[in-house]
Design goal:
The complex is a heterodimer of chains A (about 260) and B (about 525). Chain A is an alpha+beta fold and about 260 residues long. Chain A contains nine helices and seven strands; from the N terminus they run ααααααββααβββββα. In chain A, a hairpin with a 4-residue loop joins strand 5 and strand 6 (about 220). With about 525 residues, chain B is mostly beta strands. Chain B has one domain: Quinoprotein alcohol dehydrogenase-like superfamily (Methanol Dehydrogenase, Chain A, 8 Propeller). Chain B starts with a helix and ends with a strand. The chains are: A alpha+beta (about 260), B mainly beta (about 525).
């Protein structure tokens, strides 16, 4: 099957620019891709925003075909028809989806939003993002690793996550290596000795919890041995209002994340 | 001479390896041999209840693993094993069938069907178990064969092709043996099949009857399908039904109409999708039916075990349905007695004249997509409930989740997945969670719940020891107090549970078994 697909794959989309084909592609997209990439291809629970002109795994028609058909090793992107989630696509249907994606993607590469170099300074300096977030192996561990976020989330999503971190808690699935359906929920426990510990849940079941506190200490508890256990959907991340972080500075930080994430 | 034979028989029985035929009378009277687990649900009524009480509220905290059998298979391990006189029979992914010494977990034989590369399993290369009758075990395959194996050796006795798998048909359920027949319903609601329930002669494999779950031209109910949509309308029957020996009726539930999430093109009620069928066991003729969710657009298969409950003079049938309602039907007059929501639902806020929940506008999938509760996987799914006549309670695994349902036109293509939609998690709602819930069938009210961290795929077992056993998606196997729902014991199996627990006894010792990950675990007292 795979060999056949390669044999018949083409380098260029035979339907490029055809709006009728794009509509068919939209239907195929809903059947096969929207579960992760969201309706409208603007990113979902686990898949990147595909309306960006720059695709992380290649922008050409042939790159897109290959990404859809063969998946991307090391990420959550499966090969065509292997997930049980979508229905699987013929080569023709893959080209329909590519035609659709071209019809919704922004026309030009995202303009530099701000000053990425200044954003990096802020990230590791005054804004103290790196206290909790890692980018390219450097930074804290309490919050999600942000190395790829600039490439897989919309700018609006990132801005919203900084201004209103409680609106939508980050999901572990954002990171390909973190396969639990766990979100970055805030956990507060009081131990049998009366010590209160607050942190982020790394994992949890009915009987135990694994968590990390702000000093990056890992704690492992059996729930029935705790005096109290509470979970909250108020993030440990402070809401960065404009008094803490100006719109301009936030733009610079986003520019930095986009520059790293789209490399 | 006679005396020698007699002594020989006694010796064999004591060795707990004796092979006694499993007669249809034994299946009817399974309650008289609680040491054995003879059918998928433990009895014909679908109770999944064990009368064994050696493991009980008082001592369950000392329960420990007695053995673990590694299947070597990956994927969801959904079997409910059978146990007959010391031998355990189970199935594992990729159509493995195994027989074990139930005391030690040591294999006696293993059979694995070599499957074609292009089978169409919608939801994993799974299988839920075997049926046993006489000296044969029976199972259905992912390439839509029905097979009989010799119970002592695993040798193939017969192998018949039920239907062409390339059109999207498969078998995943455990068959049900009734009288001299082996009964199975087909899977494939994701492929635009025409569903059916088949009965085969146990001795020969010859098909005795087939009931198409979608009526053909001229048959009553055919008018509930638009145009030619009946030919590809789904209505699979992929969970093991129950059987009433008194009326000689099978109660068999059916699944979603196809395409699962798009009603355009199949206007009408779409009989007998999402329906409880009452079939004559000898002929397969339809005696009566009750359709739960009419013209379904959410993939809410009614493929949950229909549980027969006798309450004094009342002969009831109860089903906790994937659509979020707990239905109780009087099986003497076929009338719906009540339908109570047992999980969060947003799709219905009214009932029809019969008391059946009716969909509202908020429930219909749209091209843009919008949020509906329960989600596509339902308020429960195929995992077995249990009914405990001692507490009078019905226990079910409930899933609290909502999804965004969107719809898209999709042409039918033979053998190709056929959904007409996509669904995906909603970020408008709380994170998903689940619970084991105890429901009183007399009024549909919830007595207690035990909350799971995330939605579970485990079935539940109740026992005369005052216990309810369940599993969770975090890998725990858990014993609950049947009257309070309090957790009394748990064991971390290491993988999410996708199976129903069962219980058996050998040499006077009770065991509880559960499949998880790629392993089958048996637990007992120290």
């Amino acid at each position: 099957m795979l060999l056949l697909n390669i044999a018949f794959a083409q380098d260029h989309n035979p339907y490029a620019g055809d709006p009728k084909i794009a509509k068919l592609g939209e239907f195929q997209f809903r059947l096969n891709c929207a579960f992760c990439h969201g309706l409208g291809a603007r990113g979902g629970g686990r898949g990147p925003d595909l309306t960006r002109a720059h695709k992380r795994h290649g922008d050409s028609d042939a790159d897109l075909f290959n990404t859809i058909n063969n998946g991307v090793p090391g990420t959550a992107m499966p090969a065509n028809g292997t997930t049980g989630q979508g229905v699987g696509m013929t080569n023709e249907e893959i080209w329909q989806v590519i035609t659709y994606l071209r019809s919704v993607q922004v026309k030009a590469p995202v303009k530099p939003l701000g000053d990425a170099a200044h954003g990096k300074q802020l990230f590791y300096g005054d804004a103290n993002c790196s206290g909790c977030h890692m980018v390219q192996g450097k930074g804290g561990r309490l919050g999600p690793n942000l190395t790829s976020v600039g490439g897989i989330r919309t700018v609006e999503y990132i801005v919203d996550s900084v201004r209103n971190p409680n609106r939508r808690l980050a999901q572990g699935l954002l990171e390909a290596t973190k396969e639990f359906p766990q979100e970055y929920e805030t956990v507060t426990v009081v131990t049998a000795e009366g010590k209160e510990i607050k942190g982020v849940a790394l994992n949890e079941d009915s009987f135990s919890v694994q968590m990390m506190d702000a000093s990056e200490q890992i704690y492992l508890f059996e729930k029935d041995k705790l005096r109290s256990f509470t979970k909250s959907r108020t993030s440990m991340m402070p809401a960065y209002g404009t008094s803490l972080l100006s719109d301009k500075d936030l733009q610079d930080i986003v520019a930095y994340l986009v520059s790293v994430g789209t490399k | 001479m006679k005396g020698v034979v007699k002594i020989g028989c006694v010796w064999l029985l004591l060795a707990a390896g004796a092979f006694a035929q499993v007669t249809s009378t034994r299946l009817i009277n399974s309650g008289k041999e609680p040491q054995n687990w003879l059918t998928y649900s433990g009895d014909y009524a679908g109770h999944r209840f064990s009368a064994l009480d050696q493991i009980n509220r008082g001592n369950v905290k000392t329960l420990e693993a007695k053995w673990v059998y590694q299947t070597g298979a990956t994927g969801k391990f959904e079997t409910t094993p059978l146990v007959v006189d010391g031998i355990l029979y189970g199935t594992a992914p990729d159509n493995r069938v195994f027989a074990l010494d139930a005391r030690t977990g040591r294999p006696i034989w293993l059979y694995q069907r070599q499957l074609p590369a292009d089978i169409r399993p919608c939801c994993g290369r799974i299988n839920r178990g075997v049926a046993i009758l006489g000296d044969k075990v029976f199972f259905g395959t992912l390439d839509a064969h029905v097979m009989a194996l010799d119970a002592r050796t695993g040798s193939v006795i017969w192998d018949i092709t039920a239907v062409d798998y390339k059109l999207g048909y498969s078998f995943t359920l455990a068959p049900l043996a009734v009288k001299n027949l082996v009964i199975l319903g087909v899977s494939g609601g994701e492929y635009g099949i025409r569903g059916f329930i088949d009965a085969y002669e146990a001795d020969t494999g010859q098909r005795k009857w087939r009931f198409y779950t979608i009526p053909g031209p001229g048959e009553p109910g055919h008018e509930t399908w638009e145009g030619e949509s009946w030919k590809i309308g789904g209505a699979p029957a992929w969970i093991t039904g129950t059987y009433d020996p008194v009326s000689n009726q099978l109660f068999w539930p059916t699944g979603n109409p196809s395409p699962s999430n798009r009603g355009a093109g199949r206007a009408g009620d779409n009989l007998y999708s999402n329906t409880l069928l009452a079939l004559d066991a000898d002929s397969g003729k339809l005696n009566w039916h009750f359709q739960f969710t009419k013209h379904d657009e959410h993939d809410w298969d009614a493929t949950q075990v229909p549980v027969m409950i006798d309450d004094g003079d009342k002969k009831l049938i109860a089903q906790a349905n994937r659509d979020g309602f707990f239905y109780v039907i009087d099986r003497s007059n076929h009338k719906l007695l009540r339908a109570n929501a047992y999980a969060r639902i947003t799709w219905s806020d009214s009932k029809d004249a019969e008391g059946r929940p009716v969909g509202n506008k908020n429930g219909e999938p749209t091209p843009e997509g919008h949020t509906v509760c329960p989600g596509a996987l339902g308020a429960t799914n195929w995992m077995s409930p249990t009914f405990d006549s001692q507490t009078g309670l019905f226990y079910v695994t409930a899933r609290e989740e909502c999804d965004v349902f969107s719809t898209a036109p999709q042409p039918y293509e033979a053998g190709h997945a056929y959904y007409g939609s996509a669904y995906f998690p909603s970020d408008e709602t709380e994170p998903y969670w689940g619970a084991v819930r105890a429901i009183d069938p007399a009024n549909g009210h919830m007595k207690w719940q035990f909350q799971d961290t995330s939605p579970s795929w485990s079935g539940v077992l109740s026992t005369a020891g005052g216990l309810v056993f369940t599993g969770d998606s975090e890998g725990n196997f858990i014993a609950l107090d049947a009257t309070s729902g309090k957790s009394l014991w748990h064991f971390q199996t290491g993988a999410a549970v996708y199976a129903g627990p069962m219980a058996f006894a050998i040499d006077g010792k009770e065991y509880v078994a559960i499949a998880a990950g790629s392993s089958l675990y048996a637990f007992g007292l120290p």
